[in-house]
C-alpha cells in the first residue's frame, strides 16, 4: 500500500507540509518563506476559492447563487504556480494574481467555499497538484489542509495569532483603508468560514504556532522547527517500516 502522507506522480515521493489558520494569521507569507528555505513548492489553496469567486463575478453572477457557482466550477480553467519565487494565478488566459485580492472578491469568497461539491472538486485538484509537482515537498496552506486535504501529512501546523494582532497586520498591509472596516471584514470572513471547517482549534496531532508575540522571522523559524521535528520522525518511521 502507498504511504498516504506522501504522494508520487513521477516516482519521487512528495512530502506535504500542511498549514492551516484564520485570516491574517500569516499562512501565505510564512508558508512561502518556509517553502523557499526548504527548497519545496508552495501551494496557496485559498487562491482557488478566490479565483472561482472572481470567475463567478466576472460571469456576472453572485457567489450567493449556488447553482451559478456550481456551473462555473464545472468549467473552471484554473492554473497556479507552485514556485514560491514566481507566484501567479490564472483563469484561462487571464492572469488574476492581483485581481483575486480585491476586497470585492474577498467579501464574496466565503460564498463559494461553503458549497461541499466545490470543496470536493478543489481538494482533488490540490492533491493532484502536490502529486505532480515534481518537487521533494510542498508547503500547502489553507483552512482544512491538516484535517481534510492532507490529514496524514507528516507535518501539520495550525498557525494562529490574537484576532486584534491579525487585524492590525492586515490593516498595515492595506494602507489607506479604514482600520475598523478591515478588522470587521476579517472577523466576518472567519465567522463565515469557520461554519464550514474548523481552523480555530488544532485537531489531534496538529502543532500550534502562535505568532502573537513573534515577528515574521521568528514565526518562520518556529514553523521550520516543527517541520524539522516532524520530518525526522517521519523518516525514522519510514526506516522502521511503521
Ligand atoms: N509574525 C508576524 N509578524 C508580523 N507580521 C506578520 C507576521 N506573520 C505575518 N505577518 C504579516 O501579516 C500580514 C498577513 O499575513 P498573510 O497574508 O501571510 O496572512 P494569511 O493567513 O495568508 O491571510 P489570508 O488568509 O487573509 O490570506 C502580512 O502583511 C504579513 O507580512
Ligand atoms: N483550504 C481553504 C482555503 C481557503 N478557503 C476559503 O478561501 C478564502 C480565501 O482564502 P485565503 O487563505 O486566501 O484568505 C477563505 O476565506 C475561505 O473562504 C477555504 O475554505 N479552505
From TrEMBL:
Keyword set includes Phosphoprotein: no
Cytidylate kinase domain ranges (all copies): 17-227
Superkingdom of the organism of origin: Bacteria
Biased composition (Low complexity): 1-21
Compartments reported by the entry: Cytoplasm
Chief place where the protein resides: cytoplasm
Keywords carried by this UniProt record: ATP-binding, Cytoplasm, Kinase, Nucleotide-binding, Transferase
EC numbers: 2.7.4.25
Statement: the UniProt record of this protein carries the keyword Cytoplasm: yes
SUPFAM superfamilies: P-loop containing nucleoside triphosphate hydrolases
Family: Belongs to the cytidylate kinase family. Type 1 subfamily.
Protein name: Cytidylate kinase
Source organism (scientific name): Microbacterium flavum
